[in-house]
Amino acid sequence: MGKSEIQVLVTVRSGDLAFVQDLPVLFDNLEKRRQLDGIATQIQQTVRQRPIGTAMTYAMHVASGVSDARAARIREQARTAVFGNAINWGLGDEEFVKTLAVTDLGETFRAPFRSNVPVLLMSGTLDGRAGENDARRVGEQFDRANYITIDGASHDFWFLKAAPPRLSEITYAFLRGEPVGDERIPWPLSFRRPN
Asked: For residue 37, is it within any domain?
């Protein structure tokens, strides 16, 4: 268990709010070298035993690709980023990508576009995969974009039992074609602290 395994553990599990709430305990245990067997088990379950999903997910990421300039920026930032390039875990492996035999769709596919289709973009302030800045950057291409930001939520906020009722209200209104505006929704978040 080393740095890269911890980087992947935190990155892959960062969509799980319960995991995010336990981060202070995880880092305290690592610093004090406690509960290492439990942390190793989490890594084993996250990296080696979790369902990997469908090949379509990975094929879609590979086909979407990245420009040469962005790939260089990712490599450069990964050198000093706290979590390296763990967010792209698996996709940075040349053999894995080659095995998929999927062609990068190229710069035309990634080029900016304009659309008048109404969109509702949602993100959590603790979302390490598709945060508020990412949502706003995508939304710039839509003439009728609305942003919902959930303060204190991670990536998988829809899967929590205690999702704020306001989130559903806004979503249903949008799907009915009713006007919705930008909104911030508070989410009561508390981090678990080490003993």
From this structure: yes
Is 44 in contact with 1 (CB distance < 8 Å)?
no
In terms of domains, do 21 and 54 share one? yes
Structural domain count, the chain: 2
Whether 30 has a pLDDT exceeding 90, the answer reads yes
Tell me which of 74, 100, 126 is where a domain ends.
100
Same domain, 123 and 81: no
Domain span holding position 120? 113-186
| pLDDT tens string 66-107 | 888 988 998 899 899 888 888 877 676 778 888 888 898 999
Q: Please answer whether residues 107 and 133 qualify as being in contact, where contact means their C-beta atoms are separated by less than 8 angstroms.
A: no
The type of residue at 148 is I
- For the cut 70, the answer to whether the pLDDT of residue 52 exceeds it is no
